[in-house]
């Protein structure tokens, strides 16, 4: 199974991706996590990405495309993957199409988590407060000023992909504001063999 989860920061892509991993035996490919690991390791990619990420801007397309090209070729990704945080721009989506076509692979679904931006800001503020309360380090890009920029970036650069995949006919939408278990159930319906042919968002 090969999937993309689309949605703004804080929409719950990571949480749902982890559940899909346990349920379907696929791997989660989060470019955000991979970039943060690169920054931590101080690798050349990490050195290049660090300041960009702290400003809440996008890392250049060729950097993330190279990371994904390498990662989907690895053995553990053979049984499938859920992409979380990639693609984020039109050129990334086109590069992904090409990568998959070269390997004779197809996407099973692109799933949009639909959310209300106002509520989203509150959600991320809660995530920040909880992280700090646990004594863990808060992500530099979760600061309110940076976060607003990330939402703007999503709106201008990533949201157009909803239309891109809509036209291809691979797009499904779920209500990302529903409780976590309900979102999971909606994803299950989309991904179950019986749900595959049902109308968008149906069930
Ligand atoms: P979120 O979805 O919460 O905004 P991520 O963890 O997915 O955060 O990404 C964090 C940061 O990593 C982004 O703000 C961006 O700087 C960088 N990044 C992650 N994925 C991509 C991508 N596909 N293209 C460009 N930059 C990316």
Characterise this structure.
The protein has 203 residues and is an alpha/beta fold. It has a five-stranded parallel beta sheet with strand order 2-3-1-4-5, with helices on both faces. The relative contact order is 0.18. The model has no long low-confidence stretch (mean pLDDT 91). Adenosine-5'-diphosphate (ADP) binds next to α2 and α3. The site of adenosine-5'-diphosphate (ADP) has 17 residues, from α2 and α3.
Strand order of the largest sheet: 2-3-1-4-5
Order of helices and strands: EHEHHHEHEHHHEH
Helix content: 55-70%
**CATH top level assignment of the domain at 2-26 and 79-195:** Alpha Beta
* Mean pLDDT across every amino acid position: 91
- Alpha-beta classification: alpha/beta
The distinct bound ligands, ions and cofactors come out as: adenosine-5'-diphosphate
Shape: globular
**How far is it from the N-terminal to the C-terminal residue, by CA?**
21 Å
CATH superfamily of the domain at 2-26 and 79-195: P-loop containing nucleotide triphosphate hydrolases
β-sheet strand percentage = 5-15%
Radius of gyration: 17 Å
Q: What descriptive keywords fit this protein?
A:
single chain; 203 residues; alpha/beta; Rossmann fold; five-stranded parallel β-sheet; 9 helices; 5 strands; 55% helix; binds adenosine-5'-diphosphate
List the helices and strands and how they pair.
Elements: E1 2-6, H1 13-24, E2 27-30, H2 31-41, H3 44-54, H4 61-72, E3 81-84, H5 90-102, E4 109-114, H6 117-133, H7 144-158, H8 160-168, E5 171-175, H9 180-191
Parallel strand pairs: 1-3, 1-4, 2-3, 4-5
The protein binds adenosine-5'-diphosphate.
Adenosine-5'-diphosphate is lined by residues 9, 31-32, 35, 52-53, 56-59, 64, 85-86, 88, 92, 141, 150.
């Amino acid at each position: 199974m090969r999937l993309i989860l689309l949605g703004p920061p804080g929409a719950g892509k990571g949480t749902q991706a982890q559940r899909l991993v346990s349920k379907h035996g696929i791997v989660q490919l989060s470019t955000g996590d991979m970039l943060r690991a690169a920054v931590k390791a101080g690798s050349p990619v990490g050195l290049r990405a660090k300041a960009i990420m702290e400003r809440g801007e996008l890392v250049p397309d060729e950097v993330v495309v190279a990371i994904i090209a390498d990662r989907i070729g690895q053995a553990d990704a053979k049984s499938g993957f859920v992409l979380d945080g990639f693609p984020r721009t039109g050129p990334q989506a086109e590069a992904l199409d090409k990568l998959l076509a070269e390997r004779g692979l197809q996407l099973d679904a692109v799933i949009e988590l639909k959310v209300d931006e106002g509520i989203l800001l509150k959600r991320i503020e809660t995530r920040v407060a909880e992280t700090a309360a646990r004594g863990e380090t808060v992500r530099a890009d979760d600061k309110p000023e940076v976060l607003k920029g990330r939402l703007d970036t999503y709106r201008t650069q990533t949201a157009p992909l909803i239309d891109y995949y809509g036209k291809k006919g691979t797009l499904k939408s779920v209500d990302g504001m529903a409780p976590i278990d309900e979102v999971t159930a909606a994803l299950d319906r989309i991904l179950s063999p019986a749900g595959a042919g049902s109308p968008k968002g149906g069930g």
